[in-house]
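Predict the 3D structure for this chain.
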Amino acid sequence: MPSLKTNQINVSLVIPAYNEAARLPGTLHRVLGYLKRQPYRWELIVVDDGSTDDTAGICETHEPVRLIRNKVNMGKGYSVARGMLAARGERVIFTDADLAAPVEEIKKILVALDCADVAIGRRQTRVDQGITRETLGKLFAYLTRMITGLPFTDTQCGLKGFTLDAARAVFPRLTCRRFAFDVEALMLAQKLGLKVAEIPVAWRHVPGSKVSPVNDGWQMLKDTWRIRRELGELRAGDAVRPAGIGGAVMHEVGGDRL
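Done. Predicted structure below.
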């Protein structure tokens, strides 16, 4: 568990959000209620990815949410990178706005980060997912392992955590703006020699996902091939590209354009 330093934020929780006005009030109520019961110092960051609804307005009415706004829709990968690089906590976790993995599961991530640089959720139960979405998800996971050589069972679970040092090593190098960013982040972690722990978490499908299993799945496979070409020949500890979209993200964060 995180160390309890008086003047240090111990845990940062990042939530990317795109047109989430309908369910964000419930999500923020649950997340803030949970965090306020914890003994450590925390911050909650919501990255509004150019929403056209009242996502930003809802965040502004929920103190102490820290709101970061993309002027236009940039993609989930970009938004997660922006939040992770703006975070100040010793441990930095991101999760989805639908809370398909209950907020209480972050405790498992924090425990794993005591012994690892990166901790990723593995969806232990896939409740209410539907046979088509579940089958396509398992197919993507299999193809991802075949393409990249990554050993993980589930690269796409929306609950992942990094130590602050690991986050600042991985996310400036991210190039994928959309949903395959998880694969790239894990490949970068592996190439940088970081220790990654995969742990089972509870998970329930929530209607309203922004991911199309067919259309986005195909784009994710194409992005995965590109990532494999760019990173696949590197060995752990080799020099890794210095900056991708994360370079632009760092510039925005450093320039206080939040």
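Strands lie at 11-17, 42-49, 66-70, 91-94, 118-123, 160-163, 196-201.
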